[in-house]
Amino acid sequence: MLFIKKCRPVNLSPPEVFDDTVDILIEGGKIIKIGKNLSEEHDKAETIDAQGKIVTPGLVCSHNHFYSALARGIIASIKPATDFVSILRNLWWRLDRALDEQSLYHSGLIGALEAVKAGTTAVIDHNASPSFIRGSLKTLKRSFKDVGLRGILCYEVSCRNGEEEAEEGVQENISFTKERDNLVEASIGAHAPFTLTERILEMLTGAVKDTGRGIHIHVAEDSYDPSYSHHNYGKDPLERLEDFGLLNEKAIIAHGVHLTEKDIKLLNDSGGFLVHNVRSNMNNGVGYGGNLHELKNVAIGTDGIGSNMLEEMKFAFFKGNDQGAGLSPGNILDFLHNGNRILSEYFGEKFGRIGKDYKADLVIWDYDAPTPLVGDNLAGHFIFGMSSRDVETVIIDGAVVYKDRNFLFDTGPIYREASVAAEALWKRMDRIH
Q1: Which of 69, 101, 397, 399 is deepest in the core (most CB within 10 A)?
Q2: Is 283 within a domain?
Q3: What's the whole-model pTM score?
């Protein structure tokens, strides 16, 4: 049992800021009571005195690649890239082939630690490690559990190295659905339509139907994907996925920069989610998806550029303004909140609100608002004021995993071991052409 004393709850969507401080009682990973002076009833619970600070539901990164965590500052022989596909071939499709169990585990640990420090309580991850497929998701799950981070994990099925490897990836996704628990869920991962044959798409369809999970896939990130689909199949990428029955309310579609009107209608009709990864899109020069206002369900991810969701949402707002997208701060805050809706689809629990029976994934912020903080201007505070530096305490599934800006264990050895693993990873990558 956990007791948070004298906090000021803030809900993101619809925006709500409590006028006064309250107490929150947590048991079994859920909020069981909110009110005044609860300490008199529950004096034996572990207690956090919030001293009037605000507490929000945890933030969710709706698309990430923890396998890339050790690529930061990479020193390796990488040919210049002139387009998106050459970026994949020269960098990422060599890095992922160099990953082994140790480097993947350390990538997961670093990704999880840095997510929590930024107030991100859940990460929906998309793994690729072609030289270490079988057991890779259990290894990543171990890194999530060791830190206490919530997640939805999948393996990125692709035919870029042949169908045999793709088949192994499908099996890894299916096998991992048996490893689900209260903290880590599973989706069915795939790279992108342009690296998937019809036979492998059929296998993915079977995996989705047999497991009850959703597809997690990049679609129309770059113009190459729809061009390939039109040239080879005479249809848009999402139309191709829809023909295989892969679009449903659990579908997680990353990027969607070059979706057509037909694609958008298909996704909206299915109830699936489009995940906007604005910094990655800018970094890879793939364009801007100016159709976000047409989509019913938009969430925010990073595509491997950390898990700092406040930073990502700021970029989403500023880039949207730069492109004349007409998105308000409130729209962006809704997008950020929608990651919790994806969690609800997969875990079958209530996420994303401070209320009775909601999952206790919470962040306490040491944020001194210099202006009134109310529901009507909450999004403005998130975009123009709050920062990851304000994260003080993080609670996931009712357990304190980060308190007073410190983890409950020494992270120094983890970072030192990760640095050694990164150097070895870069050397292996140099041997791959």
Answers
A1: 69
A2: yes
A3: 0.97
